[in-house]
Give the backbone structure.
Amino acid sequence: MKKIYLDYAATTPVDKEVSRKIEVFSEDKFGNPSSLHSFGQEALFAMDHSREVVADFLNCKRKEVYFLSSATEANNLAVFGVLKKRNDPHVIASPIEHKAVLEPIKRSGASFDHLPVSSDGIVKKEKLKELIRENTVLVSIGYANSEIGTLQPLKEISEIIREENKKRKEKIIFHTDAVQAANYLSCDVQSLGVDLLTISGHKMYGPKGAAALFIKEGVDVSPIIYGASQEKGLRPGTENVYAIAGLAAAIEVLDKNDNERTEELRDRIVRGVLSELPDAKVNGSMKDRLPNNINFTFKGAEGESIMIALDREGVAVSTGSACASNSLSPSHVLLSLGLSHEEAHGSIRVSLGRFTTKEEVDFFIEKLPSIVNKLRMISGK
Amino acid sequence: MKNKGYYSEETMKRFLNPEHFGEMKDANGVGKVGNPRCGDEMTVYIKVEEGIIKKASFQTWGCAAAIATSDVVCEMVKGKHVKEALSLTEKEMVEKLKKLPALKVHCASLAIKGLKEAIDDYGKEGK
């Protein structure tokens, strides 16, 4: 059976070119970048090169790039690292942020306000100003949503924060999780106006195990783990040179992503599915959306069932986010959009990627309707 | 033996091709359990004659495990006396499915609850 992967938002395969470029770091150039001998120095050279590539991609200085093990770790550092030295801090984030942002905020003990989202999954930026308090220290808004692919108006938000900061001694820090956006949108931190930005290697055709956090020069972030002086002491622990070089190599071949082609395939799926299942609903704005994301709700059929039945046909999609699959609660993102529990449970996410073909998309469009209809027969709904 | 999928083959078989689904017009016991909040809704229908469950069917909106356990419960109680059917356990159902992920065992509980409600409903009406 041919297997079709339509879950690129969960993780991507490593691009062959990336694999080829970094295989040398597994058996050959295996040194510890902190070692002064030649083995260490060639690894350190790879770290420096990787940092340069990421800095170019983000349009920042090399010293503003910090490597870590995952986007979750980066987001934890962004939240806890900023809040650590603050007294009675206040944080603002949207309710549709990834758990890797929401959970650290909740556990930090900081007071927390949601910047609300509209029913099409875009934050209501005009509400930001009234939420900002004297003790607000951090605003975190994801660039593109991992479940529904909606794009957030980061520039406008950073403009509001900049205006506010003019009046302040202690500046509000603006963080964005750009993990889902990095494949398709500019991550120029100057033009976005962010202070902290997270990207992850395995969402961009690099290996798992490396992420980067941009920390604008002058922004005070404290370490959350302690050890030696790697990453200027902000992220101690021997660097995962292989995966970090992989993240950089992935960025070097990023222009292989074809936004227009991906968008065409996305719209082909939407058209194809809606023509067979006219009562299906697309969650999230179709206008301000990643080219590779679709999120459907089907009445009378539950998401996990659809996903498992599709998997039997060789097609991999997901319900909400892969990270939520081990939980029974429906997607917090879809509930925030105002969907009922039933609608939120009846949703699947289809995410396309660099290697998705028209044939694969058509196979999915062909298989889905009978699965949904069968489940509707079983549910009687 | 290592399991290759999230669900056992038996669970998959019943999920993909359940044999007992559908509304039962002449049912004399109906049990409705679950809710959209938890993501599973089951209705169990039984037709009882002289204490024996002659037919059982279900309608389920929910995950693969919810559908498979609904199908199993209907199959397991068919031909049984209601008293005997009431002693059906989660464990027996899981055994019948070979295996059920820990997170999904509650689906078996829900199916049993649906059956009990259906039997209650039958008893209540003094049918």
